[in-house]
Design brief:
Chain A has 321 residues and is α/β, with parallel strands linked by helices. Chain A is built from 13 helices and 12 strands. Chains A and B meet through helix 1, strand 1, helix 4 and strand 3 of A and helix 1, helix 4 and helix 12 of B.
Chain lengths: 321, 321
DNA sequence: GTTAACCTATCGAATTTTTCGATTCATATT
DNA sequence: AATATGAATCGAAAAATTCGATAGGTTAAC
């Protein structure tokens, strides 16, 4: 009996990964819906199995040992492979019961999700969507399994992610219907001069039309910044302000505000990303296909986020290598 | 947030692998020293997790489903990787590959690092040292994991740091060999009067002999300040200036400048600090031991940076609680 | 066609592990 | 000092795993 084979369950590895990601036992417990003492006990088992303190106290919080970071990296791969292996191979939308995590921002919540939800309630009422704000962390949320699908105008260069292009969006300018600018096509000069409400998405992101403007040497007349285009109509009505928002956002204000083409042309490519972990899971394949379908015709082209390639057998397959 | 998160432990995967190999629940149970019903129960869990019968009865025995064989192949890899991951990390310098961060200043880079590097290239060529300037932030760099080891004449009062005393250094005065002061032992009065090049280490630090002088009521005749003792010889040669530097720094100028004992006695304790984060990591233990060894005999005394401390049972142990 | 041999599945009880709430302990902050 | 934060620990409760015994099902032998 020289060696005792270490034993752990995958849930323990998930806990380890989460503690590492959050830097806190208590927050991990909260996220998992468990008591803090439970996480503490799980960590004790992990410490035993790996014969390492894993986390040591430092200052306010905890800091992972060097070995811990190695382990988390490896364990992450093990978990992904296991979850891929255990992913359901077949499912019936009508009876399947599971939760799928989607990470996206306001734009996708407004333009894509409502249609998805409608279909889901009819055809797959057992699929529960857990939508979280991606802000600028969408990629990390995917890799940490905090979400299964990432939607948005995101660019991921690295290998290890699958991508499907959904559609391209462009900008329109919206304003009070009384605004003189709403009466005629908007020219560039008027656009640049007009007092604008700029959406800054809570910092860390600059809308593409702003980048395009700047590249062309213009600077908008920023009268106000807000973090989200939500209820922009309420802001604009009765003012001389204009706002430049994606076309589909503008459509949600239909009737309330006037919209005209934006003289600065900029495209927003909206993509869907996922990882190998859910790549072969039947419900995920189904949902991704649904998302692509409701996103419209443009969704026919598709690719891997990485370079390579395969083959497609479904109506709206995720990927062709 | 994936599906009904499947959970299994690695022991279950081992059982699966064994059953697959032996083609029998009972023999697997026997091999594992378990009851047959236990294996049956484990298989029930596996069947649930993978949503597949895995084994179906045929004739005398059982036969694996195709999915089962896939799973066994994958699970075998998962098990191998897990066991590799959980295997006690015995550190072999010759093959280890990792980076270790050291925070120190010019003095330690000149006196300690060259010897370390020499040993490392022979015995542990896979260890990459990342040396950063500690200036006066060494402690913060440690706690922020910007470095793993801090070397220098540092005093850390707080708890949470490990310390090992390396050696004590003293000062000598160096000057042009032609300097009259170089011909006889230097007396205090001449020392105080002599025009000095003062090393200010880029502000924020005052050399200990300066503190000692001031305490004794003397003030040096400062002719010049420089941030580092590097190439001090080039500055001194052909002048009447003197400089007071740690003995081992002076030795790097050997032959170029004359050096005499400094009449102000001040000791510089050179210590090594680290944190719990790397305390139990085999490569770090090994390197710390190496640093202590090449730092010489004086390294035998050792303590914790915190209050408690004990004696030492190993040749050059970091610490024993 | 019955029986014997050989498996796996299942049941109830015993055991072990996991979880929880409360408390304690350690550290940092006021 | 006092307070706040967060991990460790304790005892009790809940859940899971394990075991022995037995049931159910298939094959081979008579």
């Amino acid at each position: 009996m020289p060696f005792e084979l270490p034993n752990l369950d995958f849930a323990a590895l998930r806990t380890l990964r989460l503690v590492h990601a959050l830097g806190s036992f208590s927050r991990a417990a909260e996220t998992l819906g468990l008591a803090q003492s439970t996480v503490s006990y799980t960590l004790a088992r992990l410490r035993e199995a790996f014969d390492d303190p894993l986390f040591v106290r430092q200052g306010q919080g905890i800091v992972p040992t060097t070995r811990c970071s190695e382990i988390v990296a490896q364990a992450g791969e093990l978990l992904d492979r296991f979850e891929e292996l255990a992913a359901p191979r077949d499912f019936e939308p009508a009876v399947a019961s599971l939760e799928i995590g989607i990470s996206c921002n306001y734009y996708e919540r407004v333009t894509i999700l409502p249609q998805i939800v409608r279909v889901l309630r009819c055809e797959a009422p057992g699929i529960r969507l857990k939508v979280i704000s991606s802000t600028v962390q969408g990629k990390g949320q995917l890799t940490r399994s905090q979400s299964d699908i990432l939607l948005g105008a995101v660019q991921i260069q690295e290998a290890g992610y699958f991508r499907r292009s959904l559609f391209k969006e462009d900008y329109v300018c919206i304003m009070d219907p009384q605004n003189p600018l709403a009466q005629v096509p908007l020219d560039l000069e008027s656009f640049v001069r007009a007092p604008q409400v700029i959406v800054n998405y809570g910092d860390g992101y600059r809308a593409r039309f702003l980048v395009a403007m700047e590249t062309a040497g213009y600077r908008p007349n920023t009268a106000m910044e807000v973090p989200s285009p939500a209820s922009m109509d309420r802001i604009l009505l009765g003012t001389d302000l204009i706002a430049t928002v994606p076309r589909r956002i503008a459509q949600t204000f239909r009737g309330e505000v006037a919209s005209v083409a934006c003289p600065v042309s900029a495209e927003i490519p909206i993509d869907m990303f996922w990882t190998a972990r859910t790549h072969s899971s039947a419900p995920h394949v189904w949902l991704r296909s649904l998302i692509a379908t409701v996103s419209g015709r443009e969704a026919e082209s598709l690719q891997d986020a990485r370079s390579s390639e395969t083959e497609d057998t479904h109506a709206f397959p995720d990927q062709s290598f």
